[in-house]
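Quick one, T. Sequence first:
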Amino acid sequence: MNRQGMLIGILVVSLLAIPFISTSVGCGKSTAPGPVIAGGVLEEASYTFMKWNEGLTLMIWHEALASSNNHGSSSTESPVYRLEGYAESDDGIRIEWNLETSDGKTAEFAINNTEYDLFEGSLFIINTKGELTTTQLNHDLSIIQPDYDSCVAFGRSDPEIANFIESLSNEQ
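Structure tokens:
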């Protein structure tokens, strides 16, 4: 084989290898960030608090119902972190929420299939007494730590949450 034929062969092999190299070096998908999650009960109310290292925070308060759960998923196959949660009463009242983020700073969020813009607030109070209502509030959640003491202290000091908790206690 002459020199020109060898150079053409090397060029062809190099061009064929480019797709394999680009998917394995720096162009692959990365794992989306997940939150630290805290949840608990304060009197007749329950809360779920999610905090990402990247800055996103989300807090949901609702009546303490019979069962609740949160689960999230992320993998190196998907650049999106997905979080789903629910709370359900013995008599069939069910609240469902889901969140998707690819950067831990912004997210798409919905409660019972209603989408909410988290730039308008990331604190939610869901009242299940009578007609199901969701109140979205714009409060600074960055100071809250994802632990019981910090979440309860915030709940007791925030007027809207404190009023919500008191209204649940008065109905008992």
